[in-house]
Each structure stands twice: as C-alpha cells, then as structure tokens.
Amino acid sequence: MRKVDPEKVEAKRRQILDAAIDCFARQGFHGTSTASICAAAGMSPGNLFHYFPTKASIIEAIAQDEQLATAEIFEKWSGAEDALTAIEEIVVEWMRLASEPTYARISIEVGAEASRNPDIKALFLVNDQRVKGRMITLIERGIRQGAIDAALAPDLLASWLIALAEGAVGRVVFESKFDLSAHEPVFRRIVRRTLQK
Amino acid sequence: MRKVDPEKVEAKRRQILDAAIDCFARQGFHGTSTASICAAAGMSPGNLFHYFPTKASIIEAIAQDEQLATAEIFEKWSGAEDALTAIEEIVVEWMRLASEPTYARISIEVGAEASRNPDIKALFLVNDQRVKGRMITLIERGIRQGAIDAALAPDLLASWLIALAEGAVGRVVFESKFDLSAHEPVFRRIVRRTLQK
To answer: Residues of A with CB below 8 A from B156's CB?
Structure first.
C-alpha cells in the first residue's frame, strides 16, 4: 500500500486552491470551468477530482480559508486586557488582510455568489455570525470596562464594524494605488470615536 | 410613418431592465442568457434587441441607473448651508437606497462584474470618481466652515464614507431582518464623530 504524505497532500491542495482563486478572480465562479482550473494548476481532471470532487467544493474550501484567516485575527486579540484596543487592532489587521488584492477580489466574488447560491450563503452566514458574535463579546467587555458607550446596542455596532471592513474590500479593488498605511489613521479614528463614550 | 411615443419607449425599457435585474440577482450576469431576460420580460429577442443590442448594454444601463440614483441624492443636499449636516443626510439617504434588497443584490453583482470586466469597471470608476469628488467638495466646505476636522485628508475621509455605504449593502443582503431605522443612529454617529473636530 502507498503511504500518504500529509505535507504533499496539503501542498497539492494549496496548488489547486491558488489556481482556482486566480481563475475565479479573472472569470468569476460561473465563468470558470473545472477544465480551466486543471490547466492553471497543471494537473489532470482525475487528479483534481481526487482532492475536490466538485467546483462547489473548491469554493467551499476558499470560503473556509477566509473564515480561518479572520478567526486567527480574533484569536490573537481576544485575550487583550483592553477590549477597545483589541477591537481597534482587529479592525486594522482585518483591513491589512482585505488590502491584499487577490483576497479583495475573491471576497467580492464569494459575496456575489453567496447572495444567490444557498449552499455558499449558508457557509458565509456561519462565518458572518461567528465574527459578529466575537465582535459583540468584545464590545460588551468594553462596556463593562467603561471604555465603550453603553448607549448603543452592541449588535448594531458590530454590524457597522463588519460593514466597514467589507466596504474596505471595494476601495482596495477600485481605488488605484490604495495605500493602507495612509488610510490607517482614518479607520482607527472611526473605530475609536464611534465606540467611545 | 409610425410615431414613437417616448413614454411607451421608456416603459418598455423599464420593463426590460426590471426583468434583467431580477434574472441577474438570481443567476448572476454570466448565468443569465438574453433568452431568459426575454422570457422574464415577456418579449421576443427581436423586440429586446431593438432596445438593448447586447447583454452588456443592459448591464451598462443598470450601472447608469445606479449612478443617477446616487447623483440625485448629492444634488438634493449639496446646496445645504451646513456641509456636515449635508454629508450626514447624504449617507442616511444612501443607506436607505442600499437597504432596498434588489438594489443591494444588484450592487454586489455590479461590483463583482466590475472587478473583472474592463468595460463595466470603466463605467463603475467614472461613477466612483464622481461620487468621491462630490464628497471631497462637501468635506472641504465643512472644514472651511470650521465643523470638520482639518487634521485628516478629505480624500481619505471620502474613501471611508464610501466604504461604509458600500459595506452596508452586504449587511442588507446577509443580515436577516435588517432594519434600517434601528441602524440609523449608529451610522449618523459614525459620520458625525469621525468628521467633527
């Protein structure tokens, strides 16, 4: 029996996902055939099928990778003493992620697909609810610490922090020469001034 | 010679655009054939061709309608005495527009298409630059009036007001029972606190 090397499996999986992301960003989910993903990844359909049985399973893996990336940012900061600072730093790191052009274009694509494909929407909503729940927990902690204004509902504030991060993706894709470091003081100000008493 | 009734022409044009918007929101631009637009609009391909020679020309008309809707909001408020109030009210009306579910879904679709189709991107960028330019003019007026903080560059502030409005579209599509009136105090606060000294 042949042994399976988990590192090689992961490298192959990554190779397919990178090729697929590139195809989707250029042609959209619907405009991309599995044949063109195979060509971009330099492998046969049979080989691709071994890792991802359908195009939908590739999209799911990409959505899950996005989920993992945001989850990591929250985990890094959730333990911070000062909840308001944690929220500010999470938003900054999220913007840094969003300012990566391929991530930004794939986010728009996943969003458009999720708005009409129930399976992708379900995946998207699980992630969305998780991120929102984590943001609400941090806002509530900030309120208890006396740093965040209790006058506004935490779930409404969480919605607008997410809207801001999602809206950033559009700026990255459509503003030529988007420079994150120039923008950073503005979104730090938005977060702090909106949340503070 | 047959007379052309401009009202009838406009009604027919509207009928096609509404049918196309419905198809695009459900199946995406690429997943929608002109045949399915004809079926939804209840007209023959020859008749549709008379109004819109290509699918791309329908997408262009939809993007132009979006452009017109935001331009109207700016025109309504640009004459207001107090620039900060004008900006706040423009953002509120923009959110009201974005909270219309069909508008929101088509916005996501236009954004995704614009990120990979150069013709749609060019159209999108003309609108984007116009909106941003108008926002910058208002911010500069607010600075001269002493109501808006001169410490931050007007073009950076304009980017984030646009990001907020564009991010709102995602919340409308993905948050079940999105209630605009509940959210209104939050985005009024974001705009005012971010811009004020």
So the answer is: 182-183, 186
